[in-house]
Amino acid sequence: GVKIVTIGGGSSYTPELMEGFIKRYEELPIREIWLVDIESGKEKLEIVGKMAQRMWDASPYDVKVHLTVDRKEALKDADFVTTQFRVGGLDARVKDERIPLSYGMVGQETNGAGGIFKAFRTIPIILDVVEDMKTLCPNAWLINFANPSGMVTDSIIRYGGWEKVIGLCNVPVGAMMAEPELLGKNLNELIYSFAGLNHFHWHRVKDTKGVDVTSEIIDKMYSNDSGIPANIHDIPFFKEQLKQMNMIPCGYHRYYYRTEEMLENMLEEYNDENVGTRAQQVKKSEKELFELYKDVNLDHKPEQLEQRGGAYYSEAACETIASIYANKNTHIVVSTKNQGSVPDLSPEDVVEVSAYIGAEGARPIAFGTFKTAEKGWLQLMKNMELTVEEAAVTGDYGLALQAFTMNPLIPSGETAKRVLDELLIAHKEYLPQF
Ligand code: NAD
Ligand code: G6P
Ligand code: MN
Questions:
Q1: Whether residue 317 has its Cβ less than 6 Å from ligand 2
Q2: Residues 6 or more apart whose Cβ sits within 8 Å of residue 268
Q3: Is the C-beta atom of 378 inside 6 A of ligand 2?
Q4: Alpha carbons within 13 A on the beta-carbon side of 62
């Protein structure tokens, strides 16, 4: 039987994972699941952990869910390690959002200054996890969900020297769930090709005869719901721009293509004490979710979880694990080493790309070179991310400032430096490297 270890097991997403594993038990026979959290997360771990066990008990399968704050105990002989932790919790995310916004800059979980600081807090911890894995479960696969998922995954390979890793995001899953309907088709009647970076990818779609139908989807997107995640404000892209690129950008591209309007919306929520930033809203829905999880009669994932931006995350996570285990060669969009699939970036760079997932991991599917405009964005963003990663590992202030200067959502100058300094102080306890 398979041993699964989930770091950050106290997450409200854990029932989502359990549901995905239960659904796939016949192809992925799990023996035990270890949910790992930290001292401050113990209460959440207990509540959601018991809920997870109830889900298995209500299934035909005999799986034991272990709860622990001892990561090393859990990691011993693991087959798959999944990561879904949030260093500093939602309080830290509130700061990532509110501090930049207080200076009139985008304040977002994975973009702009906030996203950079989430990387600064998360990368050192994931590298500790990798060090533990080297001795305790050297053959395990690491399935990363912790954000910023692309930079975290890249760091695992580049700085951790750990190759058996796959990074995930639910955004491509959402697109593939919502779009086929716009054409009156099923997903299996379409061929999807994604490429780019995590939260910065584009995709194209063909029908099974090889005819490009991207432009048709673009047309329909302007009259229908396009399936963007709940956490992103729905400002439409300029249609002329999409038609020109003949690709569909991911929801997060809104922060770059419509910065002015996105910022306006974020500032409105920030200034309205009854609304607040996304993290403040999430705090409320998380509280409601944990109240539900406490109900000893609840033994399945409540539909309220779909209000979270990460809805359907298990479709990616559990399918990836099942595909590795059973060598299924399923098409899944993952963060993995480029290996030439995107010739505009180095073969060693982690990209988010359509790939076949099997026993050997991810085999990225060649996407080809991008046109000039997208190539420019991609190269800037990847090199910005690499600068962030290096700063996260070294704690070099000058590099952090370089990353801020490169980031398109941070206007450079005195104010940017002030935001950097303020965030460094606000997150001091989680940034020993600086
Ligand atoms: P959360 O605030 O509920 O955090 C999950 C758990 O992590 C908490 O119980 C917390 O105590 C624990 N934790 C914190 N530091 C830890 C550490 N050092 N070791 C072990 N556990 C630790 O967060 P969430 O909303 O469930 O999100 C979890 C993570 O998943 C975040 O990083 C979030 O950005 C990410 N996420 C990713 C996607 C994606 O598309 N890849 C989607 C949704 C969420
Ligand atoms: C998803 C993204 C995740 C992100 C989440 C935020 O769409 O893929 O990477 O963490 O949204 O959702 P939340 O409900 O926490 O704002
Ligand atoms: Mn994501």
A1: no
A2: 275
A3: no
A4: 1
183, amino acid identity:
L
- C-alpha of residue 134 to centroid of ligand 1, in Å: 22
Cα–Cα–Cα angle for 349, 355, 360, rounded to 5 degrees: 85
Catalogue the active-site residues: 252
Cα–ligand 2 centroid distance for 110 (angstroms) = 9
For the chain, what is the radius of gyration of the CA atoms? 21
pLDDT tens, N- to C-terminus, the chain (434 residues): 999 999 999 999 999 999 999 999 999 999 999 999 999 999 999 999 999 999 999 999 999 999 999 999 999 999 999 999 999 999 999 999 999 999 999 999 999 999 999 999 999 999 999 999 999 999 999 999 999 999 999 999 999 999 999 999 999 999 999 999 999 999 999 999 999 999 999 999 999 999 999 999 998 888 655 556 667 777 889 989 999 999 999 999 999 999 999 999 999 999 999 999 999 999 999 999 999 999 999 999 999 888 888 888 888 999 999 999 999 999 999 999 999 999 999 999 999 999 999 999 999 999 999 999 999 999 999 999 999 999 999 999 999 999 999 999 999 999 999 999 999 999 999 999 99
**β-bridge mates for residue 193, sequence order:** 204
Q: Is the CB of 231 under 6 A from ligand 2?
A: yes
ipTM entry = 0.99
